[in-house]
Design a protein that fits this description.
The N and C termini lie far apart (50 Å). The strands form five sheets. This protein has an eight-stranded mixed β-sheet with strand order 5-10-2-1-13-17-18-16, sandwiched between helices. Strands 6-9-12-11 form a four-stranded mixed β-sheet. Strands 3-4 form a two-stranded antiparallel sheet. The protein is 39% helix and 26% strand. The longest helix has 23 residues. The protein is α/β, with parallel strands linked by helices. A hairpin with a 2-residue loop joins strand 11 and strand 12. Helix 3 packs across helix 5, helix 4 packs across helix 5 and helix 7 runs parallel beside helix 9. It is built from ten helices and 18 strands.
Length: 291
């Protein structure tokens, strides 16, 4: 039986969420699903619960996901080698179809299934459907030289009509990150795609799940965790960051510069981290705000 003190503590937690329930009611929040949360079954289930909670709390969540570990595993199973240059997966005509299938059916399909355990809410959308993401091929700089990445692209245009249509029906869109290019499909970075979509949707917030507690100004000094940073401060700090953090923080910066009020990276290894970020006074992780 719950004691009166425990009940009062629960009430205090609920009432703390009131300002944020008011702030984000009927607003769109774009969440980039990735990191350990994507491969840990318990964390996946908790993430799906968070999305459903947001939906029933009056928020409009939109999920954007990649699927690096699952793609590598499926390519290996099919005998297709994985090569990385400058942190990007070199994408060939042989691999792009597998990548789309894994993202839309395996990663996205499983997440939609977990969401739908709580009602008919989840809807999967591939980035090449309905012209959602359009892109062009891009290269990368490695040791000062430009290298070819094959069918790797960057998003140049977003048509959010299909996502807005699902939101209007009360659904939770789950977006896989491929794009339509001039000559077919392109594999696009999920962090960057999430930022582009957040801008196009006029989202109130972009949240990126990762495998660290947030941005550290002096890594590996764990006392240097940054709670809030402006886009100007972040731009100055970017060149000194670990390579894995650069695309995530760049996505946050681009989203805020593009009109999204706030963006945050949070620790996806912590269960229900989304709820802690959205509905508590201090949040968790690192929040990026306008300069």
């Amino acid at each position: 039986m719950v004691s009166q003190d425990q009940a009062a503590a629960k009430a205090a937690v609920l009432i703390e969420a009131l300002p944020w329930l008011k702030r984000f009611h009927d607003e769109i929040i774009v969440v980039k699903f990735g990191g350990n949360a994507m491969v840990d079954d318990e964390l996946k289930r908790a993430f799906a619960e968070d999305m459903v909670y947001l939906r029933y709390a009056g928020v409009k969540p939109v999920v954007v996901h990649g699927g690096g570990p699952q793609i590598t595993a499926e390519l290996t199973r099919r005998g297709i080698p994985s090569e990385f240059r400058g942190g990007y997966r070199v994408t060939t005509k042989e691999s792009i179809g597998v990548i789309r299938q894994v993202l839309a059916e395996q990663v996205g399909g499983q997440l939609v299934g977990l969401i739908n355990e709580h009602g008919d809410l989840g809807r999967g959308i591939s980035g090449d459907d309905h012209g959602l993401f359009t892109g062009v091929t891009r290269g990368a700089m490695v040791d000062g030289e430009s290298v070819d990445l094959g069918l790797v692209g960057e998003v140049t245009a977003v048509d959010p009509a299909s996502v807005l249509a699902e939101l209007d029906k009360g659904h939770i869109p789950v977006i896989s990150t491929v794009a339509s290019g001039p000559d077919g499909l392109l594999n696009v970075n999920a962090d960057s795609a999430a930022a582009s979509l957040a801008i196009a949707l006029n989202a109130a917030k972009l949240v990126i799940l990762t495998d660290v507690a947030g941005l550290y100004s002096d890594w590996p000094n764990r006392d240097s965790l940054v709670s809030v940073i402006t886009t100007g401060e972040l731009e100055a700090l970017l060149p000194s960051l670990e390579s894995g953090m650069i695309p995530k923080m760049t996505a946050c910066m681009d989203a805020v510069v593009g009109g999204v009020a706030k963006a945050a990276i949070i620790d996806g290894r912590e269960k229900h981290s989304i709820l802690l970020e959205v509905f508590t006074q201090n949040g968790i992780g690192t929040e990026v705000v306008p300069a």
